[in-house]
């Protein structure tokens, strides 16, 4: 896979995973609000935070691939160091 393909795969996957994780955090908070057992809402919250962090990692990988893509396809700037020298 090219850096661009990886970027286009990882970044949206990361955003979707972050969204899922935030929904799961709300679900775990609702379990606590409904006074379900501590083991249930703590385990749900832990799983939710794992999903959020996985999403952040995926999105971060997408950013890295975007930077690699940009660096590889960067147009070099011309060297103006000798202009005006005789």
Task: Please specify the SSE layout and strand pairing.
Blueprint: H1 3-33, H2 38-72
Transmembrane segments: 7-29, 41-64
Keywords: Membrane, Transmembrane, Transmembrane helix
Give a quick set of tags describing it.
mainly alpha, transmembrane, membrane, 2 helices, transmembrane helix, 86 residues, single chain
Put simply, the count of helices is 2
Question: What Rg is obtained from the alpha carbons, in whole angstroms?
Answer: 22 Å
Major beta sheet summary: none
**What order do the SSEs take from the amino end to the carboxyl end, as H and E?**
HH
Beta-strand portion reads: under 5%
Oligomeric state of shown chains: single chain
Shape: rod-shaped
Question: Which residues sit in consecutive blocks of at least 5 with pLDDT less than 50?
Answer: none
Kindly give the count of domains: 1
**Average pLDDT rating:** 92
> What percent of residues adopt helix (DSSP H or I)?
over 70%
Structural class: mainly alpha
Give the CA-CA distance, first to last residue.
49 Å
Number of strands: 0
Q: What would you say this structure looks like, in words?
A:
- The chain is mainly α and 86 residues long.
- It has one domain.
- Helices cover 77% and strands 0% of the residues.
- The longest helix has 35 residues, at 38-72.
- The protein starts with a helix and ends in a 14-residue tail after the last helix.
- The chain crosses the membrane at residues 7-29, 41-64.
- Keywords: Membrane, Transmembrane, Transmembrane helix.
